[in-house]
Each structure stands twice: as C-alpha cells, then as structure tokens.
C-alpha cells in the first residue's frame, strides 16, 4: 500500500515536472534561434537610435555591441543634443575605428545603468563609457517616476541570475529597487522579488527558479520585438570610417556655435534661452542656493554602479560631466559646492581603479554646453576626441 502511494505521488510530481521541462527546452530553443538570427543580421546603425525601449530596456541588441567590440556609451538626456559634434556622428573614425552604440533616456541614472550592465554579457575587454551628471545629485532622492518609467524587469531578472555578481551586491540593488518601486504601477513580480531578495538569502534562493523562468520569457519577448529593428537595418551599409582632424573640428564647432549663441550671457543656444531662461530670470535667481550635492542617494547608487563594474571585471571610462558655470552661479549653486561634488565623484571612480575624464575646468568654456546642463558643440567634441583616443 505504501509503495502504491509513493508511486502515485511520484507520478503526480512527474506529471507536473515533465511539461515544465519541455516548456523550458522549447523556450531555450526559440531563444537560441532568435539570438542567432539577430547576431547574423545585426548592423551598427541600430546602435545610434536614441531612447528606444526595445534596445535600451532589452538585452539582445546591446549584447551585439559588446560582442562586436564596439563602444557602448551610457548616458541620459544629453545623448540627443542636435550638434554635429555628438559622438553619434563621429564614429567610427581614423583614431578609433570602432562603431558606437548609445543607450539611455531622460532620468536614466547610476542604478539603472548598474542593472543594465549586470544583465549584459560583459567581459574585461569591453569598451564602455559611462556619463555621470551633476544634476542627478541635486535632490536627496532620485526621480522615482523617472526610475520606474525606465526600469526593465528583464534586465533586473537577468542581473539576479548573473553568477558573477555577489549576493551582497544583489541585495543592495534589490533594496534600492524595492524602495523605488514599492508604490509604483510596475509588475507586482518586481516588488515581490526585490522585497524578498533585499535581505533574505534563503528567500532569494527559493524564488530563483521563478526569476529564471521569468527572465527566459521576457528575453524571448525582447528578442522577438528586436526583429523589426534588425530587419529595417539588415540591408544598411557598413559605416564609413571618418578621417577626422579634431583641431579643425574645434574651429568648425566654434563657428557653428557662434551663429546659434548670440543673445545671452549664459552662452546657451538662443532659442533655448528665449523659451526657458529669459521669462524666468527673477524666479531662478539663487533658487539652488540650498541644494546639497553631497548627501543625495544618487551617491549610494553611483557606488553600486562602481562596485558592480569591479565585480564584473570591466573597466569603464567614467566621464564626470561638468555643467554651465554661468547658469549655476546665477542660480546660487556655488562653485565650491560644485567642485566638491566633482572631486568626490572623481575620487570614488579612481578608488575603483577606473579611468576618469574630468571636465570641471570647462564650466566657463564658451560653447561647451548647448543649454544650462547638456553638452554642446565643444563639449561633445571634447568627449568624442577623448573617447576615440581612449578606445584606439
């Protein structure tokens, strides 16, 4: 009787397990087919597309950049600035014959970049540039709505399954994810996973199979949604390697900027000034005088990003972007505060043995910025040149 009951129980278990195993095998097989198709037909032009959710919240297309030994530029709202010197227009070139992929959107900051990198198939030879902006550190907490609008459940699940990343770091990331998503409209799965993972190793191990299955399903969806982009660019030609003279390009940059910056002492593009600054000169005077750049939770997220890069064994090129000194002097965020922030951010990267591009001495460089915060003609040219020389 006992053996009969055992056999019946075993049969019931196998009835559940076998379909799951077949489902996983089929899922992996379809994923493999899509991955091979994407790899065979990927073209670098896809990498220049700004703020595309399939690319930026996904894995499939970004992994192709890393496999191709291209440059991955991780940024935010500065990436679409409409100047000829934007690196999207200057790679590949005679100094660095590598293609460039950009990833980012408004409100993408350190934690989202950490999650993204933790989800990708990285290796120590990857060419990765990460832009860090002062504006991210101006409030105690980061923009929660902005975080949630850019959050990728796929990338988070993939990171949680990444064996290169320590449990301790996964817990730190999950703690921040739960803190930022608990009151959001995001999938309840994310809230459950992050709540369990943030401080309970055993619970994390229990839910790992569910995260694994969720990741495989989301990865399949991302690969399928990537196909239209792949097919749209399948017949595009290989990008021409540009022959650049950066000294000459600087002259051109200044000439172009002078035509568009004529009417204001902040040296921002005229139309931007007339629309956003001129009507508000009285309102913005000293409005940032009480801002504390040293105590933002963004520093906590920035440290997570740096620690994650170290655990993955990658050496990103960290760009500490400066900001428009004329504007921030006027709005009361003192030069001393700004320089203290720059020094802290730079030192944190150097403590991780990462190379840093320090741009703080360009705060008052005319035409370095397009507006009050985003890089412009000379600013983007500087970064393009430094990246080209760094990633020869």
What does this structure look like?
By secondary structure, this protein is α/β, with parallel strands linked by helices. It has one domain (42-390). It has helices at 2-41, 53-56, 60-67, 110-119, 144-150, 153-160, 167-181, 188-197, 201-233, 246-260, 270-277, 281-284, 298-312, 325-330, 335-351, 377-390; strands at 71-75, 100-104, 127-133, 317-321, 356-358. Helix 6 crosses helix 9. The longest helix is centred in the N-terminal third of the chain and has 40 residues, at 2-41.
Question: Can you give keywords for this protein?
Answer:
alpha/beta; single chain; about 5% strand; about 400 residues
Secondary structure blueprint with pairings:
Layout: H1 2-41, H2 53-56, H3 60-67, E1 71-75, E2 100-104, H4 110-119, E3 127-133, H5 144-150, H6 153-160, H7 167-181, H8 188-197, H9 201-233, H10 246-260, H11 270-277, H12 281-284, H13 298-312, E4 317-321, H14 325-330, H15 335-351, E5 356-358, H16 377-390
Parallel strand pairs: 1-2, 1-3, 3-4, 4-5
């Amino acid at each position: 009787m006992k053996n009969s009951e055992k056999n019946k129980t075993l049969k019931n278990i196998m009835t559940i397990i076998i379909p799951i195993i077949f489902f996983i095998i089929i899922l992996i097989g379809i994923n493999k087919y899509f991955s091979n198709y994407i790899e065979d037909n990927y073209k670098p032009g896809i990498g220049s597309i700004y703020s595309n959710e399939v690319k930026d919240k996904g894995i499939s297309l970004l992994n192709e950049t890393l496999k191709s030994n291209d440059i991955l530029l991780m940024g935010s709202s500065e990436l679409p600035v409409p100047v000829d010197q934007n690196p999207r227009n200057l790679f590949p070139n005679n100094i660095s014959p590598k293609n460039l992929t950009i990833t980012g959107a408004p409100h993408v900051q350190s934690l989202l970049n950490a999650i993204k990198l933790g989800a990708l198939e990285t290796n120590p030879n990857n060419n990765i540039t990460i832009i860090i902006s002062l504006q991210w550190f101006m409030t105690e907490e980061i923009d929660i709505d902005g975080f949630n609008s850019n959050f990728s459940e796929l990338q988070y699940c993939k990171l949680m399954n990444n064996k290169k990343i320590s449990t301790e770091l996964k817990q730190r990331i999950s703690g921040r994810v739960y803190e930022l998503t608990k009151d959001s409209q995001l999938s309840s799965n994310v809230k459950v996973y992050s709540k369990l993972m943030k401080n309970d190793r055993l619970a994390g191990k229990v839910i790992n199979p569910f995260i694994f299955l969720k990741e495989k399903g989301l990865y399949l969806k991302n690969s399928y949604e990537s196909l239209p982009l792949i097919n749209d660019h399948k017949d595009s030609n290989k990008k021409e390697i540009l022959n650049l003279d950066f000294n000459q390009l600087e002259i051109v940059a200044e000439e172009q900027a002078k035509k568009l910056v004529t009417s204001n002492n902040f040296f921002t593009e005229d139309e931007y000034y007339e629309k956003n600054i001129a009507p508000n000169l009285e309102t913005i005077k000293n409005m940032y005088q009480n801002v504390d750049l040293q105590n933002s939770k963004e520093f906590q997220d920035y440290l997570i990003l740096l620690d994650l890069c170290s655990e993955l064994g990658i050496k990103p090129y960290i760009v500490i972007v400066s900001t428009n000194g004329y504007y921030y002097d006027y709005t009361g965020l003192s030069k001393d505060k700004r320089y203290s922030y720059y020094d802290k951010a730079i030192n944190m990267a150097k403590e991780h043995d990462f190379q840093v591009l320090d741009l703080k001495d360009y705060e008052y460089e005319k035409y370095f910025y397009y507006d009050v915060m985003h890089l412009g003609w000379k600013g983007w040219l500087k970064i393009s040149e430094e990246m080209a020389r760094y990633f020869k």
